[in-house]
ATP-binding protein
Amino acid sequence: MHVLGRETDAERSPSLPTVRLGSFLARDGSAGAAVGVDADRPHAGVVFGKRGTGKSYTLGVLAEGLAAAPGVSPVVIDPMGVFGGLRAAGGRVAAPAIRPGAIPASAWPDLLGLDPTGGPGGVVWRAVADATEGAEGIAIADLRDRVAEADAPTDARRAAANHLRLAASWDVFDADAPPIASLAADRSPTALDLAGVPEAAAAAVVRAVARGLYDARIDGDLDRLPWLLVDEAHAFFDGVADPALRTLLTRGRAPGVSLLCATQRPGALPSVAVSQSDLLICHRLTAERDVARLAEAEATYLAGDLAERLPTGTGEALVVDDATETAHTVRVRERRTPHGGGSPRASDLDSGETPDPPHGDGSDAGESEGTR
Ligand SMILES: Nc1ncnc2c1ncn2[C@@H]1O[C@H](COP(=O)(O)OP(=O)(O)OP(=O)(O)O)[C@@H](O)[C@H]1O
């Protein structure tokens, strides 16, 4: 098997943790040798592709494979709620829950859409800083108590309290939330279902999880090597999650934390996401800005017209392997667990409905199943 992200080490290679990705795709469309992804060492990677070309599916293939690999633990950020199928691989789907103290005081104004330099933003910043100093298990209610006692104008205190009330309504903050390291304590994959969670709250969750996994490895609280798989990643590089994701990209490999970002909008990711990635899996892309981001991999072996080289079929991808400095076309294997993405098709629905009577047969159509 050709293993992406692994320096050639022919003797040990077959026994090292590897995730099966698919097969090489020959020019005539036939499947060639098996292709895998190295799971022995930590990596940073991106999965790109237009809508419907197979990004989430590929992320699911990787999550399944990681769930079967020794010594690692996949955690999936699932903004669309499509990774429930991982339960069939022994995985769990968790509602997001983070401690308010997981977001640093300096990031709270931004999280609440407040100006950090003064007024209500300043009141919130101080309240979080004071409340979290030397204390754990802080609840949003504690922060509101601090705000009420703050030495600040009434208007600023009232606005700060209102914004904290809004944050409480997101239902992601919980003073008793389990430590982030518990998400990656064993090999079973965890999908954090963020479907329907407000954007700011989802960003807070991603920040807390990315930073929490990193800190847990640095502090020696996590035996396994976590892999954070972020679907729709463009949504998280533009807000409070950004610094934590950048930390994983630039410094995650030293403590052993991997990051895989999937997006249909590569152009909306920062350059560092591509320049720091040693794994690049690219399904079909057409927008110039997105192809340009891919070109920033600055790999000479990618020279030529990239858009031309991208395969067109669903589940087909160009993979760029930094370790061996090669680019190949692959067909991603089929999932072993159910995939929740893709658009619904009317022909897949088993409605049990009686077909409509032929037009003009004179019968009283009455109230049909579909209109009740
Ligand atoms: N490797 C594959 N093998 C077989 N079918 C696949 C493969 N990859 C994708 N598909 C099919 O294509 C559909 C779309 O894939 P997927 O949901 O991953 O798209 P996407 O690129 O994530 O789109 P979106 O941006 O809408 O989330 C899937 O539901 C699945 O049926």
Remarks:
- Confidence is low (pLDDT under 50) at residues 354-372.
- Residues 49, 51-57, 264, 314-315, 332, 334, 339, 341-342 surround adenosine-5'-triphosphate (CB under 6 Å).
